[in-house]
Write a structure and sequence with these properties.
The protein has eleven helices and twelve strands. Helices cover 36% and strands 26% of the residues. The chain has one domain (4-241): Alpha-Beta Barrel (TIM Barrel), CATH 3.20.20.70. Keywords: Amino-acid biosynthesis, Cytoplasm, Histidine biosynthesis, Isomerase. Pathway: Amino-acid biosynthesis; L-histidine biosynthesis; L-histidine from 5-phospho-alpha-D-ribose 1-diphosphate: step 4/9.
């Protein structure tokens, strides 16, 4: 299995930011142009870019669409999400050049609808985002930029999507996102046992090369890298080389 290193750009009001544990009130802004950053990642050897429209995720609209379109026009293959609530949004991103659309809130709230999209567009074009937070002994799946609680759990939806033919799943441990506390390898082992056929992208907590190696050794398909790259704690060139 090929292993992908996927740098991330989170957008809010057109700016590159990171949130702590998905909390919109705990934002760090980075004084860098998003397009320039994407080009730097491409020059370092990245093939994919993960883009999150944080305004869209919370508000339910494609708030940073024009910027996502520009990023999709680079040499990088872009997987983007945040604000996709209907098929019109999905098609709009595909038309803009996005290679894979990341489905979060709609995948949690309306799995039947998303399974129909898997059939229509094919599993290679969609990433199911099962971002999760442990609450009361269960892995819950909050929506709307992780601000709303939902009824389904990871245990329910991961096997359902695998059975429906989904291939790509992004899973963030929300408690570790933006915290540089290391990836939750136990969570990913649990998810692999739930749905062995899924190609899992790990997200949240990655600090350094040792963390990248640990995620790869755990049998995952890839890892999304955010704060560690933005703050220079991890070199993308070094990570790709290892």
């Amino acid at each position: 299995m090929n292993f992908s290193l996927i740098p991330a750009i989170d957008l809010r009001d057109g700016n590159v930011v990171r949130l702590r544990q998905g909390d919109y009130s705990q934002q760090t802004s980075y004084q860098v142009d998003p397009l320039r950053l994407a080009l730097d990642y491409a020059a370092a050897g990245a093939q994919w870019l993960h883009v999150v429209d944080l305004d869209g995720a919370r508000g339910g609209t494609l708030a940073n669409f024009r910027l996502i379109e520009a990023l999709a026009g680079t040499a990088l293959q872009v997987q983007a999400g945040g604000g996709v609530r209907g098929e019109d949004d999905l098609q709009r991103l595909f038309d803009a050049g996005v290679a894979r659309v990341v489905l979060g809130s709609v995948a949690i709230r309306e799995p039947g609808r998303v399974i129909a999209w898997l059939d229509r567009y094919g599993p290679e074009r969609l990433v199911i985002a099962l971002d999760t937070r442990e609450e009361g002994g269960a892995w819950r799946l909050p929506s709307a930029g992780w601000t709303h609680s939902e009824a389904p759990t990871l245990d329910e939806l991961a096997p359902r999507y695998a059975a429906a033919g989904a291939v790509h799943v992004l899973c963030t441990d929300i408690h570790r996102d933006g915290m540089l506390s290391g990836p939750n390898l136990a969570l990913y082992a649990y998810l692999r046992a739930l749905a062995p056929a899924l190609r899992i992208q790990a997200s949240g907590g990655v600090r350094d090369l040792d963390d990248v190696r640990a995620v790869r050794a755990a049998g995952l398909a890839g890892v999304v890298l955010g704060r560690s790259l933005l703050e220079g704690r991890l070199s993308l060139r070094d990570a790709l080389a290892c």
